[in-house]
Amino acid sequence: MTYAHMMESRLSLNLEHCFLHRNRGSATLVACTSLSMANAIGYSGYFLLLALSCIVLFVFLYKFVPETKGRSLEDMSIYFAELTGDHSVLEA
Fold first, then answer.
1. Strand locations in the chain, DSSP E?
2. Can you tell me the distance from the alpha carbon of 22 to that of 4, in angstroms, rounded to the nearest whole number?
């Protein structure tokens, strides 16, 4: 579940657009630097660096992104509203 699923449709489109550009930008960065990084630190070092970045990302996601399996959109809206202090969602 992405944040875009819980927002109004116009904001959802803007968020998806932003995430798409961030994803394309990071893919371009990896593609443009992979050969020079592999030549600088070796292929094993380069893939070790990629593996470490994946591990760091996994730990971050495990710690800070809530589990959404079995929860409805309304439950997640209430969860994020309480987390951010946005009481307008709770009153609606």
1. none
2. 15
